[in-house]
Design brief:
This protein is mainly alpha-helical. The chain has 23 helices and four strands. A four-stranded mixed β-sheet has the order 1-2-4-3, with helices on one face. A hairpin with a 5-residue loop joins strand 3 and strand 4. The longest helix is centred in the first third of the chain and has 26 residues. The radius of gyration is 26 Å and the shape is globular. It starts with a helix and ends in an 11-residue tail after the last strand.
Length: about 525
């Protein structure tokens, strides 16, 4: 309690000393909170991934069925660690059966990030640059969008920044913070495997610190460099223990999937390449695109379609690297170096990837871009015209992020809720049944519908048992499906059993009910 009291006393003292600065920060937090929470219950995105996560987390507190692995990745069929499920747990427990709780949890974490960027970032790059970074993150279109629904990558920006902050502290002769780097890096990699880039950045700076101090045995001993380094590795591995056991039990499935991504799937190579020159030209093309995506698209998405906007990304990157190098001996020189190297490494590594890189892959780079822009603005000379330039930058940033569609999306929970009520009215209350989905995304499980059904009945069977029941409800979101030609496994099983088909009238979707007429073989596994 005494630490908390001292913290608030320091905060009060700082506010009285710089009231305008802290008034601006409070205003940013309030506005950022409104942008991330306004109508979140009625506009929340709740699709298959969110339904799957909610089902798993609900089983943790309802059935004490603990999760030892996390979500599966969309590319490579790799499993993440379970951290995000346990982040969701208290929020879903509070809001259950409504799945809004975890989305609110994500929003609150990203609202807290606005303050964290300032308070911790000011130690790295100074108060002015950190306040600008908080401003950019507050109004970032990408940052707002990925704060308004529940998904494991949506915490990447906050966790990536915390990792870089503890890295800064560890390099600033406070080597004990390598332990914190190990912990936050362990959490970060459980949110998305692309976040390995941040871990690579930490490894690069660890090597740099070791190289500088490799002959200084006294420093190494006095700062317990090796003890904390091995401790960080131990903590990182400890966070991955559930996933390691899972991999061991299932014949190292993740390792095999990772090998496929780096080799067979041509994710990082081009087997049709005409040679080294072709590879270099292809890499140069991807480097340009990644520079634009990380520096411009993440921070000024409304300008991303401007021809040759990648030139702005190059100007920002080169200018920051040059100025940060010249300022390497400044009070905040280390912070500048960390963000500069992080930006360059993020672009360089992602440029090797040969497929589309979606925004959620790069959320860990969002705070890096925000701080790079914040530093550049803070470096403007103090002249009479500086205020007008700052105002122009703020207006340009807001115009480059204006987007009101967040509050008009059609993933409304009440629509799913009403549809599942309709489904339950058309099945026998005493009979088990299965549910299947037909949509343009190829999602046949419909776990967002399944979540709501499982909160209302215990007669919906698990996905693996769907072929064994006699009744199948089919939700056709396309309204164009032909059940006679469908390759959906469950539909094929019922079709082979000469099931009767009846269409159930429902506004917005086509609903079908299939009931077996022939006794079918018992399908133990799909």
């Amino acid at each position: 309690m005494s630490r908390i009291k001292k913290f608030f006393q320091r905060l009060k003292k700082a506010f009285l000393k710089q009231p305008i600065l802290y008034a601006i920060l409070i205003l940013l937090i309030v506005i950022g909170g409104w942008l991330r929470l306004y109508r979140i219950d009625s506009t929340i995105m709740f699709q298959g991934d969110q339904g799957r996560d909610a089902i798993i987390v609900a089983k943790i507190f309802k059935d004490f069925d603990l999760a030892f692995v996390g979500p599966v990745t969309s590319i490579g069929n790799m499993y993440l660690g379970p951290f995000y499920y346990y982040f969701m747990l208290p929020f879903l427990f509070i809001s259950y059966p409504s799945p809004v709780g975890p989305a609110v949890g994500v929003a609150l974490a990203n609202i807290a990030a606005i303050a964290i960027f300032y308070f911790l970032g000011s130690k790295m790059v100074g108060k002015k640059a950190a306040l600008w970074a908080s401003f950019f993150f507050t109004f970032s279109n990408v940052g707002i969008f990925y704060s308004r629904f529940s998904w494991n990558p949506n915490l990447s920006a906050l966790c990536a920044f915390l990792t870089l902050y503890f890295l800064y502290q560890a390099l600033n002769n406070k080597t004990k913070n390598w332990l914190w780097v190990g912990l936050t890096a362990g959490i970060l990699i459980q949110l998305h495997y692309v976040n390995l880039i941040v871990i690579a950045i930490c490894g690069l700076f660890w090597f740099y610190q070791w190289w500088q101090k490799r002959r200084d045995r006294f420093w190494q001993k006095n700062n317990h460099f090796w003890q904390y380094s091995f401790g960080a590795i131990a903590i990182f591995v400890l966070t991955m223990v559930p996933l390691i056991f899972f991999d061991w039990k299932y014949d190292w499935r993740n390792i095999a999937a990772a090998g496929a991504i780096f080799g067979k799937e041509e994710s990082f190579s081009n087997k049709q390449s005409a040679g080294l020159l072709s590879e270099i030209n292809l890499y140069r093309y991807h480097f340009r695109d990644r520079a634009q995506q990380i520096i411009v698209n993440l921070t000024l998405p409304e300008f991303s379609q401007i021809p040759h906007i990648y030139l702005l990304a190059y100007v920002i990157l080169i200018t920051f690297l040059i100025i940060s190098y010249r300022r390497k001996n400044d009070e905040h020189g280390l912070g500048y170096q960390i963000f500069g190297v992080s930006l360059l490494v993020s672009i360089t590594i992602t440029a090797f990837y040969r497929h589309n890189v979606y925004d959620h892959y790069l959320l860990s780079a969002l705070p890096i871009s925000c701080f790079v822009l914040g530093c550049l603005v803070s470096w403007l000379p103090k002249k009479n015209w500086t205020f007008l330039v700052n105002l122009a930058i703020g207006v340009i940033f807001l115009s480059g992020n204006y987007q009101s569609n967040f509050y008009k999306q059609d993933y409304m929970l009440n629509q799913i809720d009403q549809l599942t009520d309709f489904l339950l009215k058309n099945v026998n209350e005493e009979e088990e049944f299965g549910v299947s989905l037909i949509n343009s995304n190829g999602d046949s499980f419909g776990e967002h519908y399944r979540y709501f059904l499982e909160t209302k009945t215990d007669k919906l069977v698990p996905i693996s048992r769907t072929p064994n029941v006699n009744t199948l409800l089919i939700i056709d979101e396309t309204q164009e499906a032909n059940l006679e030609d469908s390759a959906n496994f469950d539909i094929v099983v019922f079709r082979n059993a000469q099931a009767s088909v009846s269409a159930l009238p429902y506004d917005g979707h086509k609903i079908y009910k299939m009931e077996k007429l022939v006794e079918e073989v018992d399908y133990d596994k799909r």
